[in-house]
Amino acid sequence: MTSRSLTRFLLLGSLASAAGLGCSEARANKAELPPSAATTGQATLGVRAAPPMDKLQGDVARVTGQIRSRLEATLSSPATGTIDKLLVNVGDKVKKGAPLMVLDSSNLFIAVDQAEAARDMAKAGLDSANIELTRTKQLFEGGSAPQAILDKVQAGQRQASAAFAQADAAVRSAQEMLRDQTLRAPFDGVVTAKMKNIGDTVSLVPATPIFTLTNVEDLEVRLPVPESMAGALKEGMQIHGRVIPGNTDFEATVRTVGVVVDGQSRTVEVLADVTGERKGVLRPGSLAELDFSRSEALAGLFLPSQALLKDEKGSYVFVVEDGRLARRDVQALPVTPRFAQVRGGLQPSDKVVVEGAASLREGLAVSVVQ
Q: Which positions fall inside the CusB-like beta-barrel domain (predicted)?
């Protein structure tokens, strides 16, 4: 081997040794590096979370009920007899006290005349007895009449007075019977039904219905409210209503909240009075949809029922804080089968786990997914 070839060989060997040493040091240095946070960090779990709602949506806080009159009556005949006059028809508006029907009263007019004549006779007898008593007292005081005569005249005067009182009562009774021949409206309203015609015979017992009278101004709404929502309703709360179909808007005020739950429908009867200005015609019997979501009684924060958990400490939810789950204790009031009002422990901006919360635990690393 020549001198130049030997020199080149030694140089290549040195370079190879240096390269091998460098690779070994690199591998050693790589093995000595500390593990990164990415390789040692705990894997996060994706959860669905959302802030609580500040009000219920209308579609989950609406109840359908029926509009009805607070004053409706089936009017029966006040006496037994034959209908002589029908003074109103279906659809007529009447005032309280207005005559609606008159029975044949010819015999009663005669009875009143006879009673008044008998009273006049009794009055004349009483006047005569009073005059006789005055004269006898004067004679008795002058010594011209004995005590027996005075006693007899006084007794006659008392009898005449009683006879007049009896005759006067007979007149009032006959007049009352005559008044009973006329059926009158007990309140302002509209005639909504007529069951009899002129010439029909009606009776007091059993009662014969003749008209149905309805007050179309004093209205209420009967609502079968789910028992889960009834607890949030209070007397006096304002609610918005709309007639369906027709879209006539109105306002109502809760008057009573029932105390009994219907065993079949699981609802509580709520009565609300129609109040305020009406933007259209409201008819008893119409269906109406009442929106409770605008009521102050249902103001606050709301969550889906599935977001709520419960243990021996009470109700709570999980919120996402700095990538981990934190427990928040709350007071929960169910208002619909799917939503509950929550108080305490939450802010409107909190991200509350709304799905699968029952399988999670506090402190778990999570990330919010859509």
A: 223-294
